[in-house]
Structure formats: structure tokens, C-alpha cells
Amino acid sequence: MHQRPKTIGLIVDGGGGWWGRLEYTKNIAAALREFNAQQPEAERIRVLAVATSEPAPAVHDYLVPHVDGFVAAAGSGARLSDKVTRRLLRTAWKYQFPITGKLDRMIRSHGIDFLYPSFQEVSPTTCRTAAWIPDFQHLHLPQLFSANELVMRERGFGAIAKLAPTVVVSSAASANDFARVYPDFAHKLAILRFRVSLPAETWNSDGVSTVRKYNLPTRYLIICNQFWHHKNHAIVFRALRELKEAGIVIPLVCTGRLHDHRCETFSDEVLCELHTSGIADQVKLLGLIPKDDQIQLLRCSAGLVQPSRFEGWNTAIEEAMALGIPVTASDIPVHREQCGELANYASTDDVAGWAQILDRAWRAGGERVSNASSYTNLRQAFASQFISIASGDLTAHTPTVA
User: Fold this and answer.
1) What is the pLDDT of residues 282-316, one digit of tens each?
2) CA 71, CA 176: separation in Å to the nearest integer?
3) Of 267, 225, 237, which is closest to residue 358 (Cα–Cα)?
4) Which residue, 34, 54, 273, 350, has fewest beta-carbon neighbours within 10 Å?
């Protein structure tokens, strides 16, 4: 008999260092809040944000509508993945990760039944835990990582595989990667395909005013990605140049941080190509903008463009699906898994193929491809799946790996 947890603790980086993880946590918390709204008060699950440090104002404000409170866990196992990796490098594979007394006391004092994502050795009498591995990008694109980063990932993920009672991944593609590298621990896997929760005001806001705020054209395609090497913006720029030479000019808006910490010169190289190719006047690079603005620009777009070479599970695609926005994506396994027949695809390096599907997306005029009610069902299933994992019931979520 699997007992539903009464209190769930969600580990968050108080400093907001990795915004993608914060967004992931917010989506879990928001889905649980929506689940709770449909339950009798006595059966609702309390959700706490377990901050690794005193939460920065932006982190606090972003999560506070979705959680029942913040708990400080500074100095008690904070930033678990980094700590495990550092300890692995220091202790030469001793795999000793005892729960600290402070974190143990915090868990007990707040009645936390399930802590996520965590892979320290928490006593089963304290609470259940599950780890999360976002992706295995280093297996597919090792050239984008330094030798030290590769060692850190391999050892850190190996520790997770060995120590975690449950390992959550976001896609069947990631589950297959895990099972290939750690076959002895494949029975620990659970797939949790996350879904996004958009604020109610998304539907009531005047998106046109946001478009005007950034001085954008009334019609455009949009990329919502950090300006990182594997996000593959360059293939879209080259396709736009080919289309322009054929007399077809498609405006493109790009949101996301214009810096790749793993390749300091990458952004400059792509920006140089953007200008020398003669399409700089039709591509708007907005950088990192407020999340609400990004959602409104996506909502008003004629389509999302997602050209990545690799993803664990893409948030912008989920946002597009929630809004009913058509998707044009690179033909990689996780995109096929995520979008199915709802997207048009081209290979990651096929300029002509990208020109063709961008032209198709542009001519389609932004026709909506889904509706809010169907995505609500996906989000409710996401909440139910997470609760099952938190309850220790993996029967419905353990994948059959290829």
C-alpha cells in the first residue's frame, strides 16, 4: 500500500543560479496547487520550497504563489548535485553521503514526507527521496564540455544511479540513455514528462502591448532559447538567408541570454554571421526578458522555432503547446516524443530542410494547433504522476527501455 505524502519539500537554489531548474520546480509546485484545489482540505498536500540559501527576492517572488512556504536548508546538504560531485572528486569514490544532522532535523520538524530532487542517503524513516537527471547531453555532444565537466557529470550521475532510491528523468530518450550507461540501476527509473502552468493573467493580458514594447513587427516567428551552442540558432539564420535570397523575408524574434558560459566566443561568432549574411534587419535579439513578456511574445507569434541539437525536455515547446502555438523543431528523438504530429521537423544541419519548414510555418499564418482544455488534461496527469512517484508507486512510470 503506497501512502500519499502529506508534505512535499522541493529543493530550490535560493540564489536562482539555474533558472531552468527554478522553472521546473515552479511547474511542479503549480501543478500540485491545481491538484490541491480539487481535493477536500484534509487531503491536500502541503508543498514547501526547501531553499539552499536565503532565497533571493526574484526567487521568492517567482515561487511564492505556488508553495505553502519556504524552508532554509543552508549548510545542510545544499546544492546537492554540486556537493556530491565535489565530494566524489575529493574522496576518490568512497560514495559516503550521510545525511547531516541539520537537514535531518529540518525534514523532521516540518514533517516532510518526500524530498525532491535529492539523492543523499536519507533514512527511509525520515522521508522518501528521488533524484532528477535533466539530460545526458554530455553523451551526445561531448565536444561541448571540458574534460573536467565530463568527469564531474560521469561521476555525479554515477553516484545518483548507485545511491538514489528513484531516478526521475523527463523523457524516454533520457531513460534509454540512463539504462545504456547504468544498466544495473535501470529498475530505479521513472519518467516524469513535465508540463507548464501559465498564470491566469496570460489569457487576459494584452499581448499586443508587449509586442509594441519591444518594437516588433505584427507577425514574426520566435525562438525562446538561451544563446548556447547546442541550441543551434545558426541553422535558422542560414535558412533565413536562403529564403531571403529567394525573395521570402521572415521576421524572427529571439529571447534568451546572449552568452554561452562554455564557449565564450560563440555568441560573437554567431552574431558576426548574422550580420554578414544580410539578415540582421529581420532578426531581433531581445536577450533575457521578463518571463511574462516572453510568454506574451510567444502567444502573439506565428510559431515557435526550436532548432536545438539536444534537449532533455523543452520548456518553450510545452509553453507553445499550452498556448496552441504551432512548433517547428529539429528532428531529434525528444522533440518527436514531446510534439508527435503537432510539429514540423527538419534535421539539425539541413539548411534547405529548415528553409522549407520555416516557409511552411510562415505561410500557415500561425494557425492554432491545440486548445487549453487538452493541455489541462496533460498538466493534471503530470501532477498525478508526480504524486505517485512521491508516494513510492513507480508501477505506472517505470519505462520499458529500448
Assistant:
1) 999 999 899 999 999 999 999 999 999 999 899 99
2) 35
3) 237
4) 54
Of 6-10, 107-111, 166-170, the poorest mean pLDDT is in 107-111
Q: Whose CA is closest to 224, among 153, 113, 154, 311?
A: 311
Report how far residue 393's alpha carbon sits from residue 297's, in angstroms, rounded to the nearest whole number: 39
**Which amino acid, residue 266?**
F
CA quadruple 337, 341, 346, 347: dihedral positive or negative? positive
The CATH architecture annotation of domain 7-193+378-390 reads 3-Layer(aba) Sandwich (3.40)
CATH match for 201-370 among 3.40.50.1970, 2.160.10.10, 3.40.50.2000, 3.50.50.60: 3.40.50.2000
Query: Computed over its alpha carbons, how large is the radius of gyration of the chain?
Result: 22
As a whole-number percent, the residues of the chain with pLDDT over 90 amount to: 54
pTM of the model: 0.86
Q: What is the pLDDT of residues 162-172, one digit of tens each?
A: 888 899 999 99
pLDDT-derived band of residue 394, with 50, 70 and 90 as boundaries? confident
Cβ-based neighbour number of residue 369 at 10 Å: 18
Total count of residues recorded for the chain: 402
Q: Are 8 and 45 in contact (CB under 8 A)?
A: yes
Q: Which residues contact 98 (CB under 8 A, 6 or more apart)?
A: 120, 121
